[in-house]
Amino acid sequence: HDLSDVDRKKLAFLLGKDRDVAHIPTDHLTCSRQHAVIQFRRRGKSVVPYIIELKSSNGTFLNKQKIESLR
Model pTM greater than 0.85? Predict the structure, then answer.
């Protein structure tokens, strides 16, 4: 995949090494097969991004802070 192929109306995108299911594939050494999801939610007139950690092996970090898993 390449980001230009991504459906612009999609509300969630899976990141990970598993190219069969990941919308945004990566080969980064610290990423898991199904690492995290970026989800977009409407809040009033705005669309707000959320990161959902999927119990990846090395964790997911945002601004050097570890995100807790929801799985």
Answer: no
